Structures
1.
Amino acid sequence: MLNRVLDGFEGKLTSSKWAAIVKCSPDTALRDILDLVDQGILAKDKGGGRSTSYSLASS
């Protein structure tokens, strides 16, 4: 999944899209994403709630 994000993912990356693509539960998708945020690979976009999206962290 991370390779797809690095190769120019179309649209906004959300936990529900992650779960659908990887075929995992929404909770697992969120844990995966939050782990990548903690590692500094992804960053949380402005906004929140149900529309929370993530993008590659700028270096």
2.
Amino acid sequence: MSESAGSGMSSPGAGAFDPEHVTQARAAIDAVDDIGVWVQRFDLLGDPTRLRILLCMHRAPGICVTDLASALEMTPTSVSHALRLLRNEGWVVVQREGKKMTYRLDDDVVHGMLHQLGATHARDVHE
């Protein structure tokens, strides 16, 4: 067995039906600055709990863990764990308001992705 066959890699264009498609496909991959960042982003968004938390924070910025837990019908401990992961990625920021800690979305790319999913903002109470 050849080295390339054993590694699952083939030489560029080997066996290709359309070398131009191969070139275009490789260019698409090369055009992404840091594919690892996108893999991590999709991994975090792939968890239903984290996605639901992000949707809630998008609609209700400045929400506290207790209110998030109530909205999601989860325990505050479970919500806090998911929030910690989102904070570690820099997607969510926490702010202290007296004894209460509030959370809001703080990542423009994720914010835009939520809009693509159909997420909307709450109407301004003054409208």
3.
Amino acid sequence: MMTSVDTDLLRVLADPLRLRIVTLLARETLCTTHLVEETGAKQTNLSNHMKVLREAGVVDTEPCGRFVYYRLRPEVLAGLSEQFAALATSARTAAGNKRACA
């Protein structure tokens, strides 16, 4: 059984600011203004990161008047977690396997 992890999603989450945003959104749905306040990032920088998270399917948007609220999609993170769990299971099974050197 060959198991792999979604490397595109890993790249998206590897950025420290995006990981901070995901952590904040795991606690509550926030608008851009809240995220700027919480992260200290400039609004244009934050908007660029939110675009990356949206395109990767990590967050959903909800317009509310002149604001946009962001909500984390937990099933995306759960899927990534399952991929890592499968790797861990494979590693446990393969712990006794050792290929001979030629």
